[in-house]
Amino acid sequence: MSTNLINEELKNEDIVSEMRKDYRMGELKEEGLLESPFKMFDMWLTKEIELNNEGSEPNAFTLATCSIDKRPSARVVLLKHFDHHGFVFYTNYNSRKSKELTENPFASMTFLWTQKQVRIEGTVEKIDRLESEKYFKTRPRGSQIGAWVSEFQSSEVSLEHLKQKTIEMEKKFQDQEVPLPPFWGGWRIKPYAFEFWQGKSGRIHDRFKYTPNDSNGWITKRLSP
Ligand SMILES: Cc1cc2nc3c(=O)[nH]c(=O)nc-3n(C[C@H](O)[C@H](O)[C@H](O)COP(=O)(O)O)c2cc1C
């Protein structure tokens, strides 16, 4: 496209500066912090699920990665498992995010919940193929076929190609279980920092950061909002 669009009017260009929300749903006190940030995450996730907000996806988070040439990129993915070993999501290993995680194995996760934010930073590793296989089996057949169709996630493609490939894959796996594609699986983010942010009235929000101590535990610090 070569048209000069620089003077084009944008309907909301000034409206966003007026948008303001007062957060009044609670506070996070030092006494309310649990010793384990995993337990804390679990507790806040439960609260978000219980709120059952229309349109909210409590297990969706923004995953930030950074290429070897220091260019960050971010996108939303779904958390599919977590325990004390880390946080697991599934994707295509040929995708932009996977390339960046391979080049530079650090990631940051951000959950935006109702007047809350959780940030997690960690190192990453590909999960066991058996673990990916186990999860892949639980996906609906359409999603399993979809994984095979989108072999080169994040590269340019035509709709025609996607349609053709869907027909081809449906035929290939007719009357059989769809196997896990070799280019698809999970990544585990192993946290070295957590931050819990609770919005409060007057912009004096509560922020607490967890970092590891020397004895397999965690220390917490309040951060300036
Ligand atoms: C709510 C939501 C959930 C998503 N979940 C996933 C997911 O779990 N895995 C995935 O690969 N992409 C997921 N996507 C698509 C990604 O945001 C992204 O478009 C895709 O993974 C390609 O990203 P990349 O080019 O940075 O690798 C999701 C998108 C949305 C909006």
Strand count: 8
Averaged pLDDT, please? Answer: 95
**The CATH architecture of the domain at 30-48 and 55-138 and 183-222:** Roll
Largest sheet: 6 strands, antiparallel, barrel
- CATH class category of the domain at 30-48 and 55-138 and 183-222: Mainly Beta
Q: How much β-strand is present in the residues?
A: 25-35%
CATH-defined fold name of the domain at 30-48 and 55-138 and 183-222: Pnp Oxidase, Chain A
Cofactor: FMN
Family: Belongs to the pyridoxamine 5'-phosphate oxidase family.
Organism: Dictyostelium firmibasis
GO molecular function: FMN binding; pyridoxamine phosphate oxidase activity
Structural overview:
There is one protein chain. This protein has helices at 37-51, 96-103, 129-138, 141-149, 159-172; strands spanning 60-66, 72-83, 86-92, 106-113, 116-126, 184-198, 206-212, 218-222. With 225 residues, it is of the alpha+beta class. 25% of the residues lie in helices and 32% in strands. It starts with 36 loop residues before the first helix and ends with a strand. It has a domain at 30-48 and 55-138 and 183-222: Electron Transport, Fmn-binding Protein, Chain A (Pnp Oxidase, Chain A, Roll), CATH 2.30.110. It binds flavin mononucleotide. Flavin mononucleotide (FMN) binds next to strand 2, strand 3 and helix 2.
Task: Record the SSE blueprint.
Layout: H1 37-51, E1 60-66, E2 72-83, E3 86-92, H2 96-103, E4 106-113, E5 116-126, H3 129-138, H4 141-149, H5 159-172, E6 184-198, E7 206-212, E8 218-222
Helix pairs in contact: 4-5
Bound molecules: flavin mononucleotide.
Enzyme class: oxidoreductase
Protein name: Pyridoxine-5'-phosphate oxidase
Keywords: Flavoprotein, FMN, Oxidoreductase, Pyridoxine biosynthesis
